[in-house]
Automatic annotation (TrEMBL):
<keyword id="KW-0812">Transmembrane</keyword>
<feature type="transmembrane region" description="Helical">
    <location>
        <begin position="271"/>
        <end position="295"/>
    </location>
</feature>
<feature type="transmembrane region" description="Helical">
    <location>
        <begin position="363"/>
        <end position="386"/>
    </location>
</feature>
<keyword id="KW-0472">Membrane</keyword>
<feature type="transmembrane region" description="Helical">
    <location>
        <begin position="69"/>
        <end position="90"/>
    </location>
</feature>
<dbReference type="Pfam" id="PF07690">
    <property type="entry name" value="MFS_1"/>
</dbReference>
<feature type="domain" description="Major facilitator superfamily (MFS) profile">
    <location>
        <begin position="32"/>
        <end position="452"/>
    </location>
</feature>
<feature type="transmembrane region" description="Helical">
    <location>
        <begin position="197"/>
        <end position="215"/>
    </location>
</feature>
<feature type="transmembrane region" description="Helical">
    <location>
        <begin position="337"/>
        <end position="357"/>
    </location>
</feature>
<dbReference type="InterPro" id="IPR011701">
    <property type="entry name" value="MFS"/>
</dbReference>
<dbReference type="InterPro" id="IPR036259">
    <property type="entry name" value="MFS_trans_sf"/>
</dbReference>
<protein>
    <submittedName>
        <fullName>MFS transporter</fullName>
    </submittedName>
</protein>
<feature type="transmembrane region" description="Helical">
    <location>
        <begin position="307"/>
        <end position="325"/>
    </location>
</feature>
<feature type="transmembrane region" description="Helical">
    <location>
        <begin position="398"/>
        <end position="422"/>
    </location>
</feature>
<dbReference type="InterPro" id="IPR005829">
    <property type="entry name" value="Sugar_transporter_CS"/>
</dbReference>
<feature type="transmembrane region" description="Helical">
    <location>
        <begin position="29"/>
        <end position="49"/>
    </location>
</feature>
<feature type="transmembrane region" description="Helical">
    <location>
        <begin position="428"/>
        <end position="447"/>
    </location>
</feature>
């Protein structure tokens, strides 16, 4: 069967007929898992390149430090706008085409970034902000992955992936540190000889190859095929037929727009809780993940060369944080895993910033633990969010919440800068980064579990 052929029986059911979704074969499941990992890693590669190459770009574009910060802020604003808009598009296009859109957008953005001219101050800066804002397509790739793999693992014939979906998904979400390590390694190897533009061209090639492979090899989920059919029936005024077909598969059907659905009474609380938690958690991501070398240098007196190697070790450890939290989420529940991880992260960073941590070994242990428990729970929360929204608005919900990372980055960076100016980097990192991370964990106590969020009278709506 070709990937374009429907896997679901979309004919009108007989009264009270019950149907089941067809299974995803082992081969299709493996293909989906590998392509999702590669797509996310390459998307993060492009996303991470901007931060890695910013000093070199600043020199060529002739920015002062405040100008570079302002441009980075405007890019964050544009990224948020793109992220907010992509979710409903994915819920309309489908998971397969959604992945092609996000990773294809990454390929285009990487290529265009390499071609931006210098020496035309306003135009050059405006082009950079607009083009890099569409890097939000690549950042949203994780929302597509969470949506797609959630549906694949529900219907796969691979029993272990059905029983331990969070553990298997964690390897995919681990593409975040892999993408950043790839950006750092290639920049270290090629920036001095080839320049920053060549690195963006390098990012374009694998992204384009992955888009082609997705078009040829990736199969749409049966859940979305059903959702698409229900939408088509509604468009043609066949609402009763749509509800009958949905009932046959045991799912809830709604004709409401995806962006409206995530604010319906039974979904609203999670939308609000997840959004606020992401905002304050990205205070910690901004300070300890993005500005890690500055924190180590200015707060703990670590030399930059030593800080660089420390962060390589710390980020390698962080990858296993994804795997651990994915595994733990299957064992004790994703909500508990997220709460515990982020609270422990806040405590670990607070210890690292205290006078107790003086030796390099102690700094690496406490910083490594902080990052392990900070980024690792994202393997659990991405899957948890996908579980909490029905098919009709699943991508919209996960993408909308993921977009809250950008307000978190802007707000967290501004507060951190203000406090650091008056009280020093250590104090700012403690009260913004460590406290924000701790608060995000506490906020997650208010999140509803998936069954409650989706209403227990529609137990199959997650499918």
């Amino acid at each position: 069967m070709s990937i374009q052929e429907p896997a679901v029986d979309l004919t009108q059911p007989r009264p009270d007929e019950k149907r089941r979704f067809p299974v995803f074969s082992k081969r299709n499941t493996s293909t989906a898992t590998v392509l999702a990992l590669l797509a996310w890693t390459v998307a993060v590669f492009d996303y991470g390149l901007f931060g890695t190459l910013l000093p070199a770009m600043q020199q060529e574009f002739g920015w002062s430090a405040p100008e570079a910060y302002a441009i980075n802020t405007w890019i964050a604003v544009g990224t948020a706008i793109v992220c907010f808009g992509i979710g409903p598009v994915i819920d309309r296009l489908g998971r397969r085409k959604g992945m092609m859109t996000t990773i294809g957008g990454t390929a285009v953005v990487s290529g265009l970034t390499a071609l931006i001219p210098t020496g035309i101050p306003f135009l050059s800066n405006a082009l950079l902000v607009v083009i890099r804002s569409f890097g939000g397509l690549g950042f949203s790739e994780q929302a597509v992955n969470a949506t797609y793999m959630n549906e694949v693992y529900q219907v796969t014939e691979v029993a272990d992936k059905r029983k331990r979906p969070g553990f298997h998904y964690s390897f995919i979400q681990g593409g975040w540190p892999l993408g950043f390590l790839l950006a750092s390694a290639l920049a270290l190897a090629f920036l001095p000889s080839l320049g920053w533009r060549a690195l963006y061209l390098m990012a374009t090639i694998p992204a384009a190859i992955i888009v082609w492979t997705i078009a040829k090899k990736l199969k749409e989920t049966p859940q979305f095929e059903l959702h698409h059919k229900l939408t088509e029936l509604e468009k043609h005024g066949k609402s009763e037929d749509a509800h009958a077909l949905a009932h046959a598969y045991g799912v809830e059907h709604s004709s409401a727009a995806p962006l409206k659905r995530i604010w319906e009474p039974h979904l609203r609380r999670n939308t609000i809780v997840f959004s606020i938690a992401w905002i304050v958690n990205f205070f910690g991501i901004t300070i300890f993940s993005v500005l890690g070398s500055s924190v180590l240098k200015n707060a703990k007196g670590v030399e930059l060369s030593d800080a660089f190697w420390m962060l390589i070790v710390i980020n390698m450890l962080a990858y296993f944080g994804y795997v651990f939290h994915g595994w733990l989420g299957d064992k004790i529940g994703r909500k508990r895993t997220i709460i515990g991880g982020w609270i422990l992260s806040g405590i670990s960073f607070a210890i690292m910033l205290s006078p107790i941590a003086t030796s390099p070994v102690m700094i690496i242990i406490t910083y490594g633990a902080g990052l392990f428990f900070l980024v690792g729970p994202y393997a659990a929360i991405q899957y948890f969010m996908a579980e909490c929204y029905p098919v009709s608005c699943r991508a919209t919900g996960t993408a909308f919440i993921g977009a809250m990372s950008q307000p978190g980055t802007i707000l967290g960076g501004a507060i951190f800068t203000a406090i650091a100016a008056g009280s020093g980097t250590g104090t700012a990192a403690l009260w913004v980064g460590a406290a924000g991370t701790l608060l995000s964990g506490l906020l997650m106590f208010a999140a509803k579990p998936p069954a409650e969020a989706l209403m227990e009278d529609h137990p199959h709506d997650v499918a």
